[in-house]
Amino acid sequence: MTPCPLCTGIGGALVFQGEKFRVIRADEAGFPAFYRVVWTAHVAEFSDLDDTDRSLCLAAVNVVELALREHLQPTKINLAALGNVVPHLHWHVIARFDWDTHFPAPVWAQACRAADGMRQQFVRDRLERVEQEVAKRLTALGKMAVG
Predict the structure, then answer these.
(1) Residue 96 and residue 77 in contact, taking contact as beta carbons nearer than 8 Å
(2) What confidence tens digit (pLDDT) does each residue in 74-111 have?
(3) Chain centroid to CA 125: how far?
(4) pTM of the shown model
(5) What is the CA radius of gyration of the chain?
């Protein structure tokens, strides 16, 4: 059996690490604002979590989505929790733009236009602020969950 890559590695650029989950920026070509909320414990399904942990997990997804919307003003946010390739609970939170290579199709579909390097760089230049906001809000969320 192959080891789980989300159990044995971070899975991307670490934005936030908590006891129950982490947030990473994935290295997905053409999609600079592609994040994952990765549950720490190796569970395959969202329904494997108890009520409290399900609420915490969705709150974390919401924090990432809100920061992306506030700082990048994307056309749409895509949320997905597929896990077919890596059966470890993780949510994809992806800022999509009407100019990206695949829009309006899913990020996993065929590209329908060439990459716009200037617009991608514009997004990349704002990611530090997005990530600071995500870490700040998730730290506060963690304190509320404990307190």
Answers:
(1) yes
(2) 999 999 999 888 999 999 999 999 999 999 999 999 99
(3) 18
(4) 0.94
(5) 15
Q: State the burial class of residue 58 (Cβ atoms within 10 Å of its Cβ: 0-12, 13-18, 19+).
A: middle
Phi, psi of 108, deg, nearest 5: -90, 0
**5-141 classified as CATH 2.30.30.280:** no
Q: Please list, in sequence order, all residues whose beta carbon lies within 8 angstroms of the beta carbon of residue 14, skipping any fewer than 6 positions away.
A: 22, 23, 24
Judged on CB neighbours under 10 Å (0-12, 13-18, 19+), 85 is exposed
Domain range annotation of the chain: 5-141
CA distances from 78 to 61, 91, 97, 141 (A): 11, 10, 10, 22
Confirm if 88 and 42 have CB atoms less than 8 A apart: yes
